[in-house]
Amino acid sequence: MHWQHTLYVWTRKDFFTLKELERMCQKEKGITSMSVKDILTSLVDDAMVDTDKIGTSVYFWAFPSKASQNRKRKINDVTNQLEEFESKKKALTESVLRAKVGKEDNDDRSELLAELVVKKDEKSRLMSELDLYRECDPDVLQEVQNQTVVAKEAANRWTDNVFSIKSWIKRKFSFEESVIDKQFDIPEDFDYVE
């Protein structure tokens, strides 16, 4: 559809304003003036028609030489892409052939591949079994012990903080320790972690 309208502009080998094109397209081609602007915008977007603003007027034109140059450029681009893809295909084919060297199907290879599958399954099973005994791993046990020491030190540090706050409240407000414990839900047996 766009191509036919572009041909109309080419055959005239001239430049036109939007008003002129609306009038000519309606008169000579039977295209409603309302759709000319949409069609023209689409042709400009597709680079099939050129446009430029000169002063207060906007002009449109399309010359066959530009379309011919565009087609030649596209042909060159596609030809270059084709050559590039053929070169890549050739390189990949050679790579596949090199990769197949020494991997021809024979009885020894088939046996080795079957054995490889069995060994991979066995490795997977053994790794799963090893995970079951991971908690007995000396490194894991040492890490748990280290984390326990850190957690114990942190708990005792917070216990120190609680005792310090209780002491400050007793001095500042003259509260009994049992009142402070009750008010802040501190258990009676609250003490350092052994």
UniProtKB/TrEMBL annotation:
<comment type="similarity">
    <text>Belongs to the MND1 family.</text>
</comment>
<dbReference type="GO" id="GO:0003690">
    <property type="term" value="F:double-stranded DNA binding"/>
</dbReference>
<dbReference type="InterPro" id="IPR005647">
    <property type="entry name" value="Mnd1"/>
</dbReference>
<feature type="coiled-coil region">
    <location>
        <begin position="68"/>
        <end position="95"/>
    </location>
</feature>
<keyword id="KW-0233">DNA recombination</keyword>
<dbReference type="InterPro" id="IPR040453">
    <property type="entry name" value="Mnd1_HTH"/>
</dbReference>
<dbReference type="Pfam" id="PF03962">
    <property type="entry name" value="Mnd1"/>
</dbReference>
<feature type="domain" description="Leucine zipper with capping helix">
    <location>
        <begin position="140"/>
        <end position="193"/>
    </location>
</feature>
<dbReference type="Pfam" id="PF18517">
    <property type="entry name" value="LZ3wCH"/>
</dbReference>
<comment type="function">
    <text>Required for proper homologous chromosome pairing and efficient cross-over and intragenic recombination during meiosis.</text>
</comment>
<dbReference type="InterPro" id="IPR040661">
    <property type="entry name" value="LZ3wCH"/>
</dbReference>
<keyword id="KW-0469">Meiosis</keyword>
<feature type="domain" description="Mnd1 HTH">
    <location>
        <begin position="11"/>
        <end position="64"/>
    </location>
</feature>
<keyword id="KW-0175">Coiled coil</keyword>
<dbReference type="GO" id="GO:0007131">
    <property type="term" value="P:reciprocal meiotic recombination"/>
</dbReference>
<protein>
    <recommendedName>
        <fullName>Meiotic nuclear division protein 1 homolog</fullName>
    </recommendedName>
</protein>
<dbReference type="GO" id="GO:0005634">
    <property type="term" value="C:nucleus"/>
</dbReference>
<keyword id="KW-0539">Nucleus</keyword>
